[in-house]
Design a protein that fits this description.
The complex is a heterodimer of chains A (313) and B (280). Chain A has eleven helices and one strand. Chain A is globular. With 313 residues, chain A is mainly alpha-helical. Helices cover 20% and strands 17% of the residues of chain B. Chain B is built from eight helices and eleven strands. The longest helix of chain B is centred in the N-terminal third of the chain and has 12 residues. Chain B starts with 11 loop residues before the first strand and ends with a helix. The chains are: A mainly alpha (313), B alpha+beta (280). At the A-B interface, helix 3, helix 8, strand 1 and helix 9 of A face strand 4, strand 5, helix 2, helix 3 and helix 8 of B. Strand 1 of chain A pairs antiparallel with strand 4 of chain B, so a sheet runs across the interface.
């Protein structure tokens, strides 16, 4: 699949934003968030910026972005439509949390709003993952790791940003439990992603013989494509760029979203240098996820590609 | 509504005879010609007479080389014969929308633009509702849907500029603006591709009616559906090439699979630099 930057920006940035809102919402709901007022507003607004930047980026993937509102109508059948509804719904508890935090409230209202914020963020992540998970034509995205990975990556990248804020904010007493939870998430993310990569590498590719139904007659080779020039179909669904550097890019991604954050957390916990380590970990994870998401598209084979001759250099 | 309608009795579709298709592309050209000017046109073309023409086609004709399988191991080693490898067979393969009964291209649509007609099963896109998200094209394993580029690189005429606003998904309409068109002669109320085929390799009819001509020929010739494992239940059927008369069975090595290569010179500068950096 062609890795469209708009969709990569959307899933990575909005994913981090919703992950941040998940942590913030849960912490508020549980009454364990260490700050109030601006201490709540700052990460909330940062999450808003991430989420909104991602959503705006996603509209540039549309042929007719001015009609995007129509995508809210088919939530009964379409995960993309559900995602649109959930992503807009999440702004309501966000506004409620913002309003309550602005007024300095720490009561039950903020707890309820926080819980709703986390719930809406989770619902949106579920929809995003299922957009990809539900496409039968792309075997790689049917893998069992796809759904959990969208959550784990959102919680990891969003959590690192929340940790960065708490580490930088004055008077924010945070224990070691939160960074150590993030460390565990980074390890889980690395293992699950590695398992996903191993799984998709072992998947048999669709063949011309199978696609055309001619395999019963013999060995089938695509002799000629329909046209000499690339078409929308070959451009979008028979993308071939990623395979050459795949292994190296995977290592870079893994290093950025898992190894660096783990090292940063270990250093922060042992030396108390969280104010330096947390932002580094958050930025590294986000950069790693851009590469991870690029590979998620570029290394996913669409069943349609089998109809076409293999791209020649 | 992108929820699927209740299964209809009438299932209009095409039957394509791979035995007699000569790969002349007349169906594809006739399709382009009719639909460019029909109710669902124009079919966007980018740089049509330039170096890199790029445009929407509802129907595309592929060509495949089929190498008959090697015979089983010969038991009688004393009578090993030096048989010639059978010539590979060329099969021309027109590919278009199969108007599936339960397609995901309809259900994944977030806007309701992609829909299946309850009365005859034709799958259509409402060009006034489509937002061009392309999820339907991703959901289709048959490559039935192509987007009209929202931003063509070159716009040479008013028509092109009009196309430039399009940015919506386009697909085979089974010539819904022909088959019910009472201004046409009754025998012309067929899809343009069917009328254009010089070998009558394309047939149009109701595959939901077991007594229709198309259903009979499918039953007689062992017509098959493409990639049924997706569960989309394609309506269109393909008739397999008939067995060859010479009955040749000797072995020939299968051609080596083509390896993917990347021509770095074709890449934009940033990607070329990345390719260079990562190649070290």
């Amino acid at each position: 699949m062609r890795p469209a930057l708009s969709v990569i920006f959307f899933t990575v940035l909005s994913g981090a934003g919703y992950g941040l809102w998940c942590w913030l919402g849960v912490a508020l709901a549980a009454g364990v968030y260490p700050l109030a007022g601006v201490g709540v507003l700052a990460p909330l607004v940062f999450g808003f910026v991430l989420v909104t930047a991602g959503l705006l980026a996603s509209t540039s993937h549309l042929g007719r972005p001015e009609r995007a509102w129509r995508a809210l109508s088919q939530w009964r059948s379409s995960w993309l439509s559900r995602e649109g509804v959930a992503s807009l719904a999440a702004y309501l508890p966000m506004l409620a949390v913002a309003w309550l935090a602005w007024r300095g409230s720490t009561g039950g209202g903020l707890r309820v709003a926080g819980a709703l914020l986390a719930a809406c963020a989770l619902a949106t992540l579920l929809c995003t993952a299922n957009i990809y998970r539900s496409l039968k034509t792309i075997a790689a995205w049917r893998a069992r790791q796809v759904l959990p990975l969208y959550f784990v990556f959102a919680w990891l990248s969003g959590g690192l940003w929340l940790w960065a804020w708490l580490a930088l904010a004055p008077h924010a007493a945070i224990g070691e439990a939160f960074p150590l939870t993030l460390l565990a998430l980074a390890v889980i993310a690395a293992i699950t992603k590695f398992d996903y990569w191993r799984g998709i590498d072992a998947q048999p590719a669709n063949s011309a013989g199978h696609a055309t139904g001619l395999e019963t007659l013999g060995q089938v080779r695509a002799f000629e494509g329909p046209v000499t020039e690339p078409s929308y179909l070959t451009h979008e669904m028979a993308f071939a760029l990623a395979r050459k550097h795949g292994a190296r890019l995977r290592r870079i991604a893994l290093g950025l979203f898992a190894v660096l954050p783990v090292l940063a957390i270990v250093v922060a916990v042992t030396t108390g240098q969280a104010a330096w380590m947390a932002p580094i970990a958050a930025i590294a994870a986000l950069a790693g996820l851009f590469i991870e998401r690029w590979l998620f598209f570029a290394q996913a084979q669409h069943a349609l590609a089998a109809f076409f001759p293999a791209p020649q250099g | 509504m992108t929820s699927l309608p209740a299964p209809a009795k009438k299932k209009l579709g095409l039957v394509i005879d791979l035995d007699i298709c000569v790969g002349c592309h007349a169906c594809a050209v006739a399709c382009k010609a009719w639909n460019d000017g029909g109710d669902f046109g124009p079919l966007a073309d980018d740089d049509p007479y330039g170096a890199e023409p790029h445009g929407v086609w509802f129907n595309r004709v592929h060509s495949y080389e089929v190498q008959p399988p090697a015979p089983g191991p010969r038991l009688d080693l004393l009578h090993l014969e030096d048989t010639a490898a059978p010539a590979p067979q060329m099969v021309h393969f027109p590919r278009s929308c199969l108007h599936c009964e339960t397609p995901d291209c309809v259900t994944v649509c977030p806007t309701g633009a992609s829909y299946k007609r309850a009365e005859d099963g034709i799958v259509l896109v409402d060009q006034d509702k489509c937002i061009g998200c392309q999820l339907c094209a991703w959901a289709c394993p048959y490559g039935a849907r192509e987007i009209a580029l929202p931003h063509p690189k070159t716009t040479t005429s008013d028509t092109d500029r009009k196309d430039a606003k399009r940015g919506t998904m386009q697909k085979c309409t089974l010539c819904v603006d022909r088959i019910y068109n009472e201004t046409l002669d009754a025998r012309d109320r067929q899809p343009a591709c069917v009328l254009a085929c010089p070998t009558h390799a394309r047939m149009f009819g109701d595959l939901g009616d077991p007594d229709s001509d198309v259903s009979k020929v499918v039953a007689e010739r062992g017509g098959f559906a493409l990639m049924p494992e997706f569960g989309y239940q394609p309506v269109n059927r393909y008739l397999p090439p008939r067995p060859r008369r010479d009955g040749s069975t000797a072995t020939a090595p299968p051609p080596a699979p083509a390896t993917e290569t990347l021509d770095a010179n074709q890449l934009p500068p940033l990607l070329r630099w990345l390719d260079k950096a990562l190649s070290r």
